[in-house]
């Protein structure tokens, strides 16, 4: 099953409204590209890093100039954008550390639940692809949309974005609250 652009826009606005009710902070955004208005969804998440302050255990009690670095964290930025080529939503995302350094695919792959991983190390490129963001023109990862229409065809939902995102989101380190199930 594929979605028409207008249906995607309607579902995206509904999803943003549901998200607002649930306090989940997905925002509906618009952008102009080649004279056409693009509607998409955006969410930012800041996740604490496993690492604590870098200098916390490395101090001399007599030192007056003890410095603690700020806690490390990772910022994830997610976009749900309609793909005209596939006629389905696509999950785009980027992640960077508190120092601004982008996470490479190898680090992102470690965050993905094992049930999405194959024993073949090359499959990560079938699932996650790094491409130029269609509106920002900078490198982002995307969950490849090849099988999205198949996934949507088996979903029974009032809002396909909720069903689809609950299935593909974990591949990008994103999960939805169980509260969304009320709206499926």
Automatic annotation (TrEMBL):
<dbReference type="InterPro" id="IPR007135">
    <property type="entry name" value="Atg3/Atg10"/>
</dbReference>
<keyword id="KW-0833">Ubl conjugation pathway</keyword>
<dbReference type="GO" id="GO:0061651">
    <property type="term" value="F:Atg12 conjugating enzyme activity"/>
</dbReference>
<dbReference type="Pfam" id="PF03987">
    <property type="entry name" value="Autophagy_act_C"/>
</dbReference>
<dbReference type="GO" id="GO:0032446">
    <property type="term" value="P:protein modification by small protein conjugation"/>
</dbReference>
<dbReference type="GO" id="GO:0000422">
    <property type="term" value="P:autophagy of mitochondrion"/>
</dbReference>
<comment type="similarity">
    <text>Belongs to the ATG10 family.</text>
</comment>
<keyword id="KW-0072">Autophagy</keyword>
<protein>
    <recommendedName>
        <fullName>Ubiquitin-like-conjugating enzyme ATG10</fullName>
    </recommendedName>
</protein>
<keyword id="KW-0808">Transferase</keyword>
<dbReference type="GO" id="GO:0000045">
    <property type="term" value="P:autophagosome assembly"/>
</dbReference>
<dbReference type="GO" id="GO:0005829">
    <property type="term" value="C:cytosol"/>
</dbReference>
């Amino acid at each position: 099953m594929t979605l028409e652009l207008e249906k995607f826009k309607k579902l995206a606005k509904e999803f943003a409204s549901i998200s607002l009710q649930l306090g989940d902070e997905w925002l509906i955004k618009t952008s102009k590209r080649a004279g056409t208005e693009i509607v998409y969804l955006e969410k930012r998440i800041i996740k604490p890093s496993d690492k604590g302050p870098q200098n916390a255990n490395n101090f001399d009690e007599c030192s007056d100039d003890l410095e603690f670095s700020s806690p490390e964290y990772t910022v994830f930025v997610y976009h749900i954008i309609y793909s005209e080529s596939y006629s389905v939503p696509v999950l785009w995302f980027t992640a960077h550390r508190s120092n601004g350094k982008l996470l490479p695919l190898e680090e992102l792959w470690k965050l993905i639940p094992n049930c999405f991983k194959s024993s073949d190390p090359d499959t990560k490129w079938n699932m996650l692809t790094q491409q130029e963001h269609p509106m920002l023109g900078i490198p982002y990862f995307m969950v490849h949309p090849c099988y999205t229409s198949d996934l949507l065809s088996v979903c029974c939902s009032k809002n396909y974005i909720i069903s689809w995102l609950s299935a593909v989101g974990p591949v990008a380190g994103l999960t939805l609250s169980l509260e969304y199930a009320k709206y499926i």
